[in-house]
Amino acid sequence: MPETLKKTTGAETEEATAAVSATPNVGKPRSLWSDAWHDLRRSPLFVVSAILIVFLIVMAVFPGLFTGADPRYADLANHYLQKPKWGNFFQEDWFGYDVQGRSIYARVVYGARASIMVAVIVTVLVTILGAVVGMLAGYFGGWIDTILSRVTDIFFGVPFILGAMVILTSFEERKVWVVILALAFLGWTQIARVARGSVLTIKQADYVMAAKALGASTSRILLRHILPNAMAPVIVVATIALGGYISAEASLSFLGIGLAEPTVSWGVDISSGQEQLRNAAFVLIIPSVMVSITVLAFIMLGDAVRNALDPKLR
Known about the structure:
Blueprint: H1 2-22, H2 32-40, H3 44-61, H4 76-79, H5 104-140, H6 142-156, H7 160-169, H8 176-187, H9 189-202, H10 206-213, H11 218-254, H12 266-273, H13 282-309
Helix pairs in contact: 2-13, 3-5, 3-13, 5-6, 5-8, 5-9, 5-11, 6-9, 7-8, 9-11, 10-11, 11-12, 11-13, 12-13
């Protein structure tokens, strides 16, 4: 009888050990950001948009890798509105020549720098300004919220393109930094509203209440508890808006109010090519297609990030 009991007990012990070893190891729970990155890596929308954006950024930073032609060199006698040679991949005459005999391919490559630089810097500025205004308004409330919200409403009521036109026409020379400041001055309102709404929800959370009860300073609560948790919707809006700033810069340059010669920009080329729409449409269409592809890539990236960060969309 004892031997049988020992055998049974030994068998049960072996089964229990096998069951424990078969149980998967439960690791440390992932944060919102790590969970979002896990989903993004498996999203075709994110992969395609990320590849496009990386390609465009490399082209903007290192244009010499893609062409050795000078985007400002004009040979009017030999290359006036010369049509594209679609078989000459990555060559000077791949996209043809414009009305001044300049290589459109070289200008497309070098034009990415100004267009993307304007959009990225504007996005960084409006994200910082909008997040600060929204956090202060949402966290403190009261008269601070009232004043900041009314100021936001005033700026939000100004038509974006029209306001930028008014600002830019007051400058005799419209360099890149002038366009950046004009767009950033008017573009922060949407992010401020999103940040304010996010902070209003987060400041009622238990961990924020616990931090207040433990005597944490306001700056610590804002920077350690509220800011990291309120940034998800802000990043989504900023990513989508980045493509809009590329489109805004091109629109202003097309109207002759944004960037101007000798700056190489897609918007400048679209503006100079509008007069040749009937007899040489490629001069206008090619930089327009580049703007559309870039804007689409950033919008796709913003949609992928939104799907990954919003639990309701999973």
